[in-house]
Task: structure prediction
Amino acid sequence: MKEDIFENGLKLPLIEEFYTVQGEGYHMGKAAYFIRLGGCDIACNWCDTKISWRADKHKLASVERIAESAGRSGANTIVVTGGEPTTYNLMPLCNELTERNIDLHIETSGAYPLTGEWDWICLSPKRQQPPEKTIYKLANELKIIIFSEEDFEWAEECAKQVNKNCKLYLQPEWSQHVELTPKVVEYVKQNTKWSISIQAHKFMKVP
Result:
């Protein structure tokens, strides 16, 4: 049924697309065009984009149309996010965007097999639905959201599985960032392989 609806990745449930700056992680502060896809069954209780959970609430868009809009933006970096983008076959979208000579980044929990070809893979795994094992070694960036003390243990479990060049980030969950940021700072001081990621776009009040 899914392939009939999405035509094996030729159409995708598009929530929004916008040109802004990357607010998190290694590429924070760099201009990027975001493509947000609908559909996610991981259901983090602290999720700040719950609108993305139901794919059927969002209109389908052809990958040609999505790529054309991205190309017109003038951006040289695209970030595909969600929801959980690996729910879909992303090779058709990557093919369209690659033709426009745009760097392709993806933000994913890794819960499903990765499709497409990417210049940067940001892996943000969730304990309730751990990643496919193969994505750990592919990740350029590991970003763990810290919501509770147990998430520090989860972060260390994940860090053992990524490649040696993967950038490691701990990010305080936004609704508790005032309380959590000092704890994350102290943890990073004691465990210096980690860096802190903040949601800078929320402080700047940009998309």
